[in-house]
What does this fold into?
Amino acid sequence: QVQLVESGGGLVQAGGSLRLSCAASVPGRTFISYTVGWFRQAPGKEREFVAAIAGNNYIWYADSVKGRFAVSRDNSKNTVYLQMNSLSPDDTAVYYCAAGGAFSIVTTDYGYWGQGTQVTVSS
It folds into this structure.
């Protein structure tokens, strides 16, 4: 059973930065075989794709975060990071990391999810 734990959320002023971490426990398989995606869900809205990184470091970003957010992974630590810069109140949401086998930006393609971490950006 893959387990994912997000950390690093919090309250930040507009224009500020946060770095989220997603630590994975992947018994029976190597972490590099998983694509890890970041998603977010604001109150009253659907969960939406933010960024994803495959084991070979292929990366894709949502247009809304391109140029501001950066995803990376450290396979030796079974951890994926999401560096978020130039944050705006529109980025306020619960951020989730998810793991799946194939590269995808679709929520239903990911079988394992973390519990989420709250990011609040004040104006």
